[in-house]
UniProtKB/TrEMBL annotation:
Carbohydrate kinase FGGY N-terminal domain boundaries: 5-246
GO molecular function annotation: ATP binding; glycerol kinase activity
Pathway per the UniProt entry: Polyol metabolism; glycerol degradation via glycerol kinase pathway; sn-glycerol 3-phosphate from glycerol: step 1/1
A Pfam family assignment: FGGY_C
NCBIfam families tied to this protein: glycerol_kin, PRK00047.1
Protein's name according to its UniProt entry: Glycerol kinase
Gene: glpK
Protein EC: 2.7.1.30
Protein function: Key enzyme in the regulation of glycerol uptake and metabolism. Catalyzes the phosphorylation of glycerol to yield sn-glycerol 3-phosphate.
Domain Carbohydrate kinase FGGY C-terminal: 257-444
Catalysed reactions, as listed in the record: glycerol + ATP = sn-glycerol 3-phosphate + ADP + H(+)
Amino acid sequence: MSKTLLAIDQGTTSSRAILFSNKGEILALRQKELTLHYPQRGWVEQDPEDIWEDTLWACRSVLEETGEENIAAIGITNQRETTIIWDRKTGKPIYNAIVWQDRRTADRCARLKEQGHEKVITEKTGLLIDPYFSATKIAWILDHVTGARARAEQGALAFGSIDCFLLWRLTAGQVHATDASNAARTMLFNIQSQEWDKELLALLDIPAALLPEVKDNAANFGQTTLLQQPLMIGGMAGDQQAALIGQACFKEGMIKSTYGTGCFALMNIGTHFKRSQNRLLTTVGYRLNGQVTYVLEGSIFIAGAALQWLRDGLGLFTDATESEALALSVADNNGVYFVPAFTGLGAPYWQPAARGLITGLGRESTAAHLTRAALEAQGYQTRDLMDAMCRDSGVDPSFIRIDGGLVANEFVCQFLADMLDKPIEIPQVTESTAWGAAALAGLQAGVFNGLSDIAGHWSAARRYAPQMDATQRAALYKGWKNAIQKVL
Ligand SMILES: Nc1ncnc2c1ncn2[C@@H]1O[C@H](COP(=O)(O)OP(=O)(O)O)[C@@H](O)[C@H]1O
Ligand SMILES: O=P(O)(O)OC[C@H](O)CO
């Protein structure tokens, strides 16, 4: 009987468990939406116990529902950068999870830039200085939770992104480890030497005793006995890197772009580290058998979250799926542009202090125009990234693979093809992120012999060809650039 694979996909919006066949078919999926807390302007937190309980519930429910006993291994994938510090003895977090979108450390980041540290940080980590990454979030917790720094120095505390925290809990505190793609998002990990960087730890005053071991993406991460059967955790990757794997972007120049809470476009640039010249990130795509494949990354902080805001903040609809019909009920955006910079602007602008803007409103503007503007923003933001990526890499890709919750929206997919003037491909396996994690676990467990086995399971469910004429494309994009200038 062929083996199955269990993926844990702990995203910003929800925690999921998915059971896959060895061909990538979804056999069962359970998911729970996760609450975000906004204690102050620019702060975003989650309760680590919610994250853990929802994840465990999702895994147990999938196994109960299917009665599956033939699982080869578990793969974990996660919202990246989100920071948890916990007590090694009790396993209890000492503060809420500080979510990747949180901006509370913007001043600290500005100081680091003023002091001239960006060059060395970028050279070592491939990142730019921004509150997005874990380092300043860790420092904030150590500075604000009473006694935390002293306990960290004594080795009593552990830091982890969500993957690492879930692994710790799944292995009942036996394993404190992460993978190279998640470590690369801390701003403390040297992605050239593949080591925690002593100079950066000193710069941010972060004790090395907090940090996990860093493993390949396919590795033996330990065993869990908390589910119906003992299972090995064999794969781990940040969600965007997992989607890169699920989308089989294994050749140089291939790009995937994922539209969930945020949008993240990754281009495979091969095995040589190369710094971006256009304010993109260089990061670890995957590390297998010690060999790193690097990617250029464009990170947009708000994608689907803009639709959540229209739903929850303005009450324009009750479900994000309604946005498509609403957007199509008007002929065009009628001059309305929506820059959803709620938590600052990411690539290629990197302005943590920027905030959202709606421009071009007239007496005739309606909820439909605003919704259309929010959906069009996905295309404009991606165009900003693609232009920078093509300049950086010298590669003009002939197609782009996309995935994530938003690709259920056909208006968005067509608009992306139109704004990028490139064919867009949507895979048969819609859950690319979870499938990527499962595939990594499958590599470790011997279900797959190599990346070509995984690539063999990729097929397109749908392709969108560009239809917009060049004049219209240029005029719409010019309107976006004007709106961006106002934000900046
Ligand atoms: N049909 C749709 N149209 C527009 N947005 C959608 C649609 N379906 C889901 N979304 C958006 O997609 C996001 C969820 O995508 P998902 O990939 O599950 O996110 P994450 O991985 O960040 O948890 C939500 O922000 C939601 O608003
Ligand atoms: O929750 P997502 O899928 O939007 O992904 C979040 C990213 O990993 C943040 O870097």
